[in-house]
Amino acid sequence: MVRAIYLEGIATGDATFEQSPPDWEKWDTGHLLAARIVGRSEGGDVLGWAALSAVSGRCVYAGVAEVSVYVAQRARGRGVGRQLLARLIADSEADGVWTLQAGIFPENVASIALHERAGFRMVGKRERLGQMNGRWRDVVLMERRSAVAGQ
User: What topology does CATH give the domain 2-145?
Assistant: First the structure.
């Protein structure tokens, strides 16, 4: 179900540069173990997921991670993303992460608003960062500094 939610995000054209989900091994090695969250309904249905990726292999960046948050289409607008991101932040701080980054397409206004409500600020816009289906895409860079970790 996590894969299906990722596919829904890919299908929007505004969630990721990826055109298909990676296999489990690639996804697993690309994400930190400390903060992998699956949001479920009371009945156990998967409604969304969130995870962190390292931004660099250099030790000076050990406390900096990139955020991924995906919510099932049927669950959008119900606070699932807010809950996932809040838990992701708490788990990241418990693991010593002092800076969270998010790269978001400017067209994904719901994701930008979600991150702003969680304390992220816009650092800038990376213009023409990459091509997607023959079209250059900008990416808004957002970050959140922990008041707990790295102090």
Answer: Aminopeptidase (3.40.630)
